[in-house]
Amino acid sequence: MAESKTIAVVTTTYDGSGDHDGLFALFRSLGNMKEFGFEVTYQKAQGSFLTYNFNKAWANALNLDADYFAMLHDDICPEQSWLAKLMTIMQERDADVVSTLMPIKSPEGNTTTAIGHETERFRPAFRITMSEAQQLPWTFNAEDIGYPGRVLLFNTGCWLVNLRKPGVRETDENGRLKAYFDVANEIRWHEDLQQWVAAAFSEDWWFSRRLHEITNGTAKVFVTRTVHTEHIGGQRWHNQEAWGHSRDYLSDDVEKLKMCCIQGHMRCGGSVLQHILHDNPACVGPGESHLAYDSPLALGKLQRVIESWLDEELDPLPAWLVDRVAAGSPFPPPMLRSRCLRHICMLRPPRYTVPSLRDMCEMANAPEEEMLARYERRLDVLPRLVKHIPAEHGLCITYEALQTKTEAVFKAIESLLGLETPLAPTYSTTPISGLWGVGDGGVKICTGVLHTKQDRQPEQSELVDRLQPMYEKALSALSGHFRSII
Fold first, then answer.
1. What structural domains and CATH numbers belong to the chain?
2. pTM for the full model?
3. Which distant-in-sequence residues (6+ apart) come within 8 Å of 265 by Cβ?
4. Which one of 119, 185, 197, 385 is separated from 435 by 20 to 30 angstroms, measured CA to CA?
């Protein structure tokens, strides 16, 4: 009779309050494995020091001289046959590791399975989404999905590893095990973004890369979605059907994104300029996203917002994403200096802006006093942007110049963005044209043409007189720093 194999099974928990359905599935699975002739040991790793818990369980399995090590996190609820399914795949594929595809607990639909970056050790190239997973084999390795030789970063929420495979018990010259759990953190200077960027690498991805390096890429690592699981947190996030976004927006593609930002104020004419840019094949972005650009990841979020507006994917990516900032200052200085941003600063005199704001408040049922205060704050903020934006990365224009010096403004923007197709004063409308909140809600924006004549009577009032010096200060600062057409 063949000697039975031993599986060391561990559940990991922060405070012992794990999912009861998951524990029930665990113990049913342990019983099933015993019926199949496996000896099974069980331990609970509890505590707040996550990597220490994992490493204690890992060391215990090695001390038991177990043949296999299986782990189930306390927020994972698998089907009752989870361990049998993982073992079947391991034996059929002669695998070192078999991990269950697991979604992250958020509506984006990203999973914790990824392909490692080619040049940066502690960074993924991209994460596989639940939508992408439906196009992949039920069980796959890196080669199966088109990345031979690359490290497949897997999840340890529901997984199995063969402890008899090479590399698992390998030690360094000091007797320390090479394969273990840890996390990596770093803060690095990003040349293109011109700012410090914090990054982290989780314990499961650390282990994935360690095993890949120890075995010189020969470890047979597979990820499967044949095991039905739910990731518990806020709701039950399942791993069986397509949901969320079609691809990972926080991947390598983020560093390929560039943005043209119209830095202006409400009723400055930014909506019509944004429509004109959006109609150019090199640009996309028909509305104001209201995102806070506090990190480079915000560009990926902008892409997602634009795709939701247009109800289509941006594939291929355009040269420029376009957004408009009309209130507040959602850019920290490092982002303003970023090489992947270009800024069109756009102003309009108070004598025309104030009556336009009043009309907007009446049509949109918005509080007039608050909107006027936002305009005043924006005039105060705009001059302070210039010291952070390289002069060659910006342009200063007025709405009147856009109307009366249209060709000169277009040529300046084409030069700033390197556009091959000339801009035109006519444009196509979009699904969000004419909607308040993301842009101009008036009827003129939906006509599809730049109106070159001023059709509004200027206002003369104490408020206009008070705002005029602020406008002049902003115009002087911006036009003195950037190329300007006013």
1. 6-238 (3.90.550.40), 252-485 (3.40.50)
2. 0.64
3. 326, 327, 347, 348, 353, 374, 375, 378, 379, 382
4. 385
